[in-house]
Amino acid sequence: MALVFPATAWHAEEQLSLAKAALLFADCLSSSARRSLLAYIDAFSLFSHFDSTAPTPPRITMPVIEANNVTEWNTALRAAKAAGRTVIVDAYATWCGPCKAIAPVFDKLASTVDWVTFVRFDVDKCPSIAQAKKITAMPTFLAIRNGETVETLKGADPAALNRLVYTHAGPNPPIAPLSPEAEALKEEGNTFFKGGEFESARDKYSEAISLAPESFVLLGNRAFAILRSASPDFEAALADADEAVRIAPTWAKGHVRRGEALQGLGRKDEAARAFEEAIKHGTPQVKKEASEKLEKVRS
């Protein structure tokens, strides 16, 4: 593991977020790498004084993770999500010539680009992962942010791979794991939402929020469920979206929900600014959604 120091100082809230993420992330490292990270944290006293004059936190690069099974895959993705790191995935096959040709490029990026977790897996050893990610050609590269696949790249194109990595590199808002109880309630809410039962989804998200009040994802989910209800309570949706972006100011989906709520309240200028924030921070998919909503609110 290499520690690389950026030139600019972070604010107190960012230092606190990094400290929390570092604790979660450290548990997923090898013992030697974990000692290095914790030694850094101790040396710079990140946990004792969070002020704008404190030393800058580390930018961390790591070797490529080889996921040999679903458990290792899930562990890598959960750790990256908790630490606010983008995941770049190389889905390859041992018999694939282009896969072998581009592998050194992937390895080089892993050693130089920070706030990214690089994971590769053999499609023949892990067919369930390949099927879940709809891998039909090798090599295929995926960009995953906060657990969601945001872009797919097929083929051994070094320039395109560089663009994929640098477009989606973190840091992203760190998402701390929910307790098993809160996670179960969130999944129930998601099931209701997918079935169009938005009031029931809202209720399940509310139960989960009572267990994890600082989860901006749950707040965003509840705002979304409220907005999709038959009779939306735009004030309630706005309150949830406001709290979500307070906790995670760069979370683009939170700004989209905020814009939708403001639009519902007839506050079009504020809605437009919220959609602009989403475009600034979002993945290509979220940027597209926010751009379409911005165009409508301005028409």
From TrEMBL:
SUPFAM superfamilies found in the cross-reference section: Thioredoxin-like (SSF52833), TPR-like (SSF48452)
Signal peptide coordinates: none
Short name of one Pfam family: Thioredoxin
PROSITE patterns the UniProt entry points to: THIOREDOXIN_2, TPR
CDD domains: TRX_family (cd02947)
Biological process, per Gene Ontology: response to stress
Annotated TPR repeat ranges: 182-215
Protein keywords: Disulfide bond, Repeat, TPR repeat
SMART domains on file: TPR
Region (Disordered) location: 278-299
Span of domain Thioredoxin: 51-190
Keyword Disulfide bond applies: yes
PANTHER family xrefs: THIOREDOXIN-LIKE PROTEIN 1 (PTHR46115)
Name of the protein: Thioredoxin
Organism: Rhodotorula taiwanensis
